[in-house]
Write the structure tokens for this entry.
Amino acid sequence: MKKLFIAIAALLLTSLTASAQKKYSCYAVGFYNQENLFDYTHDEGKNDYEFTPQGSYKWNELKYSHKLHNLAKVLSEMGTDVLPGVGCAVIGLSEVENDHVLDDLTAQPALAQRGYKYIHLEGPDARGIDCALLYNPKLFSVRDTMLVPYVYEREEDKARRATRGFLTVNGLLAGESVTVIVCHWPSRGAGSYYRELAAKQVKAVKDSLVKADPKMKVIIMGDMNDDPVNKSMHEVLGAKAEVSEVGPGDMYNPWYNILVKQMTGTLRYNGAWNLFDQIVMTPNLINKDGSKDYTTLKYWKNQIFRRDYLFQTSGKYKGNPKRTTAGGVWLDGYSDHLPVVAYFLKEQH
């Protein structure tokens, strides 16, 4: 019997040692609403006059340069809680004006030293704000890009002004084919129907990608202008709160319980938190059975990125994200949204 116990102990020790020797690579994926990242010159055909020296924001070179510096600081620190000195492999952006601002943003020392590049396709938004994708070419290799337009379906809506499409970028992350869809859905003022329509169209893009390649891993991110509990996200897109609820055509939304159970989010309105900024994923990016199988790229954990400097510290809006301008006063801040980050693991072989 003693020999049997020794043999069992030796077997357990061997098993534990083998497990301990597993090594994993971690990849951070982020999203951050830039809150009106405009340069200070007029773009032909765009209603961007607010962001000129003569406009309501009195936008000029000084304010623009500060905005670039501030945003680059945040973007360079996203993901570094887990990956110091590395940060995010990809970061989706919303509310960027054009290639010019993205050239200037990626030239900021904090981002330039990591070699960040960007994907941006000019969209039809009347103000000129688009989505973009920052990426570290050492970690994410771009293969294909397209801007899928937002299409109005009802005849009475055909005369409405065109709005932001869905930036769709396929590439290799951890050696696997991953498609990232960056969104900025219609505003709260437009009504829930228009965000549900956006969700329907993004789901159609996702479904078509997965049908063409069942192994395709899809990450949908953006400022949805809806919370995880709203119909557009939870029902139309099928972004479920629990891993156990995720069916083959659904997605997993790790932000649902952060809003509902932790009662926090990425932006505040009248003292209450919303969580419009979300990163959701197809079932092949999660471990549904509760296992910790990371032989292929899988979701690990997520966070709302917080730093003390990102918040108002006094006044009426104390505790809110520190935005660039409020009440006509330039605050030299960052954004009215907080960034979000999701982490993915893959076992090293």
